[in-house]
Design brief:
With 342 residues, this protein is of the alpha/beta class. It folds into two domains: 197 residues, Rossmann fold (3-Layer(aba) Sandwich); 116 residues, Rossmann fold, CATH 3.40.50.40. It is 26% helix and 20% strand. Strand 11, helix 5 and strand 12 form a beta-alpha-beta unit. The protein is globular, with a radius of gyration of 21 Å. The chain starts with 9 loop residues before the first strand and ends with a helix. The model has no long low-confidence stretch (mean pLDDT 94). Bound molecules: succinic acid.
Length: 342
């Protein structure tokens, strides 16, 4: 050890499961395995170098495959982040997570937490027992970033594959590669190379004083029904009509190209908007900004642009906004200002 352990920063690792905690009987296979089986204490023990970086404490918040992420766990996680972030001499928090819904949890925490210490989410594409597992280095790098004073004030961060991403911007863009995570519209915030951490740009800052919306959204105690629908060749309107009948409050459309929507779907969505359902246009392309028409048609004027948020991130913002203010469903102009500001 290069530093006496008491002089090292205190970092708390909150574990939720995922492939980083996955195990397989066949180390040569990175596809056949069980996610969320290895306890966080074992993940930390497997990386002795952590002891040179931080005094690491662990808490097993959950042990799930993140495809099964649910609002209850988001609430629990937000509570643990809020608790640990104000404990004496905690320098930072790391969250281990599955890769599949990491971008949604990152968006949720980005929008709901305003922490005095860095919150860094990490994950792995290969299970802990795999040949050339990526989890141990990702965990070490995440702790390095969480312990770094340079990471303070940069919001929720995501560290994988030696890159640092903004929680708002990052998305999973590959089924299996270790460089699966990208920030398509912005690029990463920086990188980690052993002990060297470099932020090459600042995250886009929200100017709290001039925002038309809260700079951090309350964590809902009850969540509105908000879903994602997809525009594609020959869509039907059955799903939208059924959702409206079920009381849906918000719909995000994974639209084609620059937010264009098939006429059949657009007619159903206009009916939904007319009935007070918030309709948000996002793009299924994976990158870019959905334009706001300078002279919207009466129908397009009912729909809100998600800007550069992908459908999954746009839904998280829509959920929080509608939970905080259900009247936004009836006010496309105000809802558009929410999306423009977040
Ligand atoms: C999960 O998301 O929990 C499983 C997949 C992964 O972590 O890569």
């Amino acid at each position: 050890m290069s530093a006496s352990s008491s002089s090292l920063p205190r970092v708390v690792v909150l574990a939720t499961g995922g492939t980083i905690a996955g195990s397989s009987g066949d180390p040569a296979s990175s596809a056949q395995y069980q996610a969320a089986t290895v306890p966080v204490s074992q993940l930390v023990q497997a990386v002795p170098a952590l002891a040179d970086v931080a005094r690491v404490e662990t808490e097993q918040v959950a042990q799930i495959d993140s495809k099964d992420m649910a609002f209850g766990l988001w609430q629990q996680l937000a509570g643990r982040v809020a608790y640990w972030s104000v404990q004496p001499d905690v320098a930072g928090i790391v969250i281990t997570h599955g890769t599949d819904t990491l971008e949604e949890t990152a968006m949720f925490l980005h929008l709901t937490q305003s922490c005095p210490v860095p919150v860094v989410i990490t994950a792995a594409m290969r299970p802990a027992t795999s040949l050339s597992a990526d989890g141990p280095l990702n965990l070490l790098d995440a702790v390095r970033v969480a312990a770094s004073p340079d990471a303070r004030g940069k919001g929720v961060l995501v560290v994988l594959n030696q890159q640092i991403h903004a929680g708002r911007d990052v998305t999973k863009a590959h089924t299996s590669a270790v460089d699966a995570f990208v920030s398509p519209n912005t690029g990463p915030l920086g990188y980690v190379q052993d002990a060297y951490i470099r932020f090459t740009r600042m995250p886009a800052r929200r100017d709290a004083e001039h925002l038309p919306v809260p700079s951090t959204w309350p964590v809902p105690s009850t969540w509105p029904l908000a879903e994602i629908v997809v525009s594609h060749a020959q869509p039907g309107r059955v799903a939208i009509d059924a959702l409206v009948a079920a009381g849906v409050k918000g719909l995000v459309v994974a639209a084609t190209g620059n937010g264009s929507i098939h006429e059949t779907l657009a007619a159903a969505l206009a009916d939904a908007a007319g009935a007070g359902v918030a309709v948000v246009r996002s793009s299924r392309t994976g990158a870019g900004h959905v334009s706001i028409p300078a002279h919207p048609s009466p129908r397009a004027g009912l729909f809100v642009s998600a800007g550069d948020l992908n459908p999954y991130k746009a839904r998280v913002l829509l959920l929080l906004a509608l939970a905080a203010d259900p009247s936004l469903g009836f006010d496309a102009v105000r809802l558009q200002s929410v999306f423009a500001a977040c």
